[in-house]
Amino acid sequence: MADAALFEFLHTEMVAELWAHHSDPGPGGQKMSLCVLEGMGFRVGQALGERLPQETLAFREELDVLKFLCKDLWVAVFQKQMDSLRTNHQGTYVLQDNSFPLLIRMASGLQYLEEAPKFLTFTCGLLRGTLSTLGIKSLVTASVASLPTCKFQVVIQKT
Fold this sequence. Notes:
Layout: H1 2-21, H2 27-50, H3 62-78, E1 84-87, E2 92-97, H4 121-133, E3 138-143, E4 150-156
Antiparallel strand pairs: 1-2, 2-4, 3-4
Helix pairs in contact: 1-2, 2-4
């Protein structure tokens, strides 16, 4: 429990500091903050991926890798599994978390809905970094229609 609270507080402070540090409230300053957060998440995801057991690195199918992210990685980071994983079988996956831990405190009011995406940027980078370590190049985006539910869309980039 202490690890989850520590991670949540650290994440909240990272977002707040980056938003305050780039005082330009326009799209340029916000884009820079989002890029920095995504980059931090990417590097953390790479580091997590590098520490995976060797048998984990031997996935044969993309779907198996995404299942691993939804179960094992999500439990390691957020102490819960992802709620659903869907695919179009053409390289696009949608991962849904109905009670995303980094959005739960914001779920008390609709006024926080427009602020929610910046709290998902680090996690997008985390997923992309872990996938990168597993040899999968991807584009990861997130969306929030109602708090605390969020969806992460993973598009596998074929080389």
